Amino acid sequence: MRLLVLTLLAVCCLAAGLVEGVGSEVPEKSFCMSFTTQKLKINRIKTYIIKEGSMKAVIFITRRGLKICADPQASWVKDAIKSVDNRARKTIIQTKPTEAQQPTRTAVTLTGR
Question: Where is the signal peptide (predicted)?
Answer without folding.
Answer: 1-21
